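Entry 14: structure prediction run for Sedoheptulose-1,7-bisphosphatase, chloroplastic. Input pasted below.
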Amino acid sequence: MCMGEALRTIAFKVRTASCGGTACINSFGDEQLAVDMLADKLLFEALTYSHYCKYACSEEVPELQDMGGPVEGGFSVAFDPLDGSSIVDTNFTVGTIFGVWPGDKLTGVTGRDQVAAAMGIYGPRTTYVLALKDFPGTHEFLLLDEGKWQHVKETTEIGEGKMFSPGNLRATFDNPDYEKLINYYVREKYTLRYTGGMVPDVNQIIVKEKGVFTNVTSPSTKAKLRLLFEVAPLGLLIEKAGGYSSDGTQSVLDKVINNLDERTQVAYGSKNEIIRFEEILYGSSRLKAGEPVGAAA
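Run finished. Output tokens:
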């Protein structure tokens, strides 16, 4: 509930931000803040008022902050307050990402330990996409004019479809396997759907129930996406929707989060797209080897 209220406020602040020079700003009390920092403050404030959050951290404040909640029966939350903040001034869709873990640990855990994950999407519509570990499906809520959230969609299956979102394309310069994968998409006449924002690019897989998102590294272009703040929460959303995720050899939900700033490459999509991703980049796929795949039902 507290995060839903924060997302509603962030949506308004993004929509009414003044952009000029190097930043988009809006008011936070008596302060004028860049919208990403404003979103950060709103989310920390909401978690404090929840009374259930023990620790929280964000991409903007990457150290554990004590929110005052209990360890027993409480939760810890990691979030990216405004993913895509550099494209707010272009009026592209941007969003918020967060993952919720039980207790007081955000390291030494995996994405599969999450009890919930969500993203807020601030575009022509404002939507809130939520997945709960013990509840089937990934669920989309629409922000109505009166400020209420209305459930509008449940996604339980990601099927096959020729739609791709290729992040970090510069890696094809010195990663020939990634170049081979991109050439496959082009040769097979996939439709390019890439905005430069991770939230809308991953959200479209859930909404359209098809497609693939890739962000691959190379010797000269190291991993930028953070496992804790972005990759693991989106991994739960995708896998609860019936899709799959991979860092090249395993589901991103099985990667141990060793530190708050840990980074990784990633792909999200349908089963066959993730098989193709793993086979082209690493020669084989665990999804053909009979191993358990996907998030728990």
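Notes: The CA atoms of residues 8 and 282 lie 42 Å apart. Will compare against the previous run tomorrow.
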